[in-house]
Amino acid sequence: MRRFLVAVMMVAGLAAAHAGPLQEARARLHHVIIIMQENRSFDHYFGTYPGADGFPRNSHGKIALCVPFDPRHPNLGCKVPFHDTHLDNAGASHQYADALADIDGGRMDGFIYQQTGGRPGCHKPKPGFCPGIRIHDAVAYHTAAEIPQYWAYARNFVLQDHLFQSVPSWSFPVHLYLASEWSADCPDPRDPRGCLSDARMRFRKFGRPRSWKLTMPWTSIAWLLDRANVSWRYYLAPGEQADCLDRKGADCALDQLKPGVPGAWNPFPFFSTFKAAAAADPQYEGDHIVLVNRFLTDLQDGTLPNVAWLAPSGYISEHPPHNLKTGMLYVVSMINAVAQSRYWRDTAIFVTWDDWGGFYDHVAPPISEERNSQILGYGLRVPGLIVSPWARSGTIDHQVMSFDAYNRFIEDLFLHSARLDPNTDGRPDPRPDVREALTKVYDRSTGLPIPVGDLLNDFDFRQHPLLPLLLPEQ
């Protein structure tokens, strides 16, 4: 908590100094790459990273917290977070209801209960599945021993320790926010004015993912980029997504990650503006939703777009139960490819994880200015890494922000700071606020305002550019 309050004060100071002003950023940075992996909390990956807002410690250096088996019955005991050397984890259920239960009003004590389904001896989130091995890995953590490359990026570039999900939920709502700063249910797919905020996005109305017929009629960041003639691509690693749920919350057939198939990790084809552009131009979708091998070709051929998103397949996503090192080495291979290309000098790479995956984090997410009965502000804290020759080397960024900061950064660099604002973009919808324009959020326990950070503060455009850091890929 002390570091959390220090972060509040640091934001004000950094904003005042503003060592990386926007005009310098526009001159130096011509490419933004967002690599979004899956399902890891900050404490799960960096809870023991020196200097970060990790696990609280007592005077003996021991972790000074214990997560209860059942927050309703403290007498049942608790478990101290522990180092897990396994590379395949179970994690826990991570839907909207799980986020609220894990946060538990700011007490951050629901993680084991949600993983075990209320049975402390269980390993999987579903009651009745109790093999008795690796019990309670929802409160396990990793160190540089398991993820050395990620810790190397943190040491040499920027580690963000107060980066939160945009919404307390699972992949689909999070990716909708990444694409458009909103997640909503729309009775009329032709009219955004009837849409209602929906952080759950369960398949109660939509059926199985393979038969999704959704249309999102509100505005996405892609529409703003197209209107300004700013190039962009969404790169997909071919394969299956890691999980899905049918309308009853049960397991179902996995989505395929490939062009032409919209899904929770491939959100842009859901939007009406995307569908209209694809109908008008047969080459539109094929030029913007492509496989990840095209990313490597674009780096070699000099055709990298201004804005790029990289979405993994399940196997390389780090989504439990997939091997986390396999996913890390995929990320390293992508960063190495940029580092060895002509684009290193003018690129900012952001690496993050779309949700917490049920893994423990001790920092209660702040509440946003969004006044909606369902969406209660930011989601749980996740790791954030910034890799760029202009990044402040060895910095731990304590600024409070969410994935909304990525769109704000893109808009500031390439769109003259235009926002996804129905009052200015000519496309009315009833979204409760303009997320990229938020200047403050609120502490969940005190209600006090916390300034929202600015990614520009993580760069120094007057420093000698950092050399590429090439890390092992196998």
Q: What's the helix count? A: 13
- Mean pLDDT metric: 88
Strand segment count: 19
Q: Unreliable runs, pLDDT <50, ≥5 residues?
A: 10-20, 121-133, 204-211, 245-251
What fraction strand?
A: 5-15%
Rg on CA atoms, Å = 21 Å
CATH architecture of the largest domain: 3-Layer(aba) Sandwich
CATH class of the largest domain: Alpha Beta
Shape: globular
| Helix amount | 10-25%
Main β-sheet description: 9 strands, mixed
Overall domain count: 2
Task: Give the termini distance in whole angstroms.
Answer: 38 Å
CATH overall fold name of the largest domain: Alkaline Phosphatase, subunit A
Task: Kindly name the structural category.
Answer: alpha/beta
Structure description:
The chain is α/β, with parallel strands linked by helices and 474 residues long. The chain has 2 domains: 2-22 and 29-41 and 143-458, Alkaline Phosphatase, subunit A (3-Layer(aba) Sandwich), CATH 3.40.720; 67-141, no CATH class. It has 13 helices and 19 strands. Strand 18 (440-442) and strand 19 (449-451) form a beta hairpin. The chain is globular, with a radius of gyration of 21 Å. The chain starts with a helix and ends in a 23-residue tail after the last strand. The model is unreliable at 10-20, 121-133, 204-211 and 245-251 (pLDDT under 50).
How would the blueprint of this fold be written?
Blueprint: H1 2-17, H2 22-28, E1 31-37, H3 42-46, E2 67-68, E3 78-79, E4 82-83, H4 96-103, H5 111-116, E5 140-141, H6 148-156, E6 158-164, H7 171-180, E7 184-185, E8 196-197, H8 221-227, E9 232-236, E10 239-240, E11 256-257, H9 272-280, H10 284-288, E12 289-291, H11 293-301, E13 307-311, H12 324-339, E14 347-353, E15 381-387, E16 395-397, E17 401-402, H13 404-414, E18 440-442, E19 449-451
Parallel strand pairs: 1-13, 1-14, 4-5, 6-16, 6-17, 9-12, 9-13
Antiparallel strand pairs: 2-3, 6-15, 7-8, 10-11, 14-15, 18-19
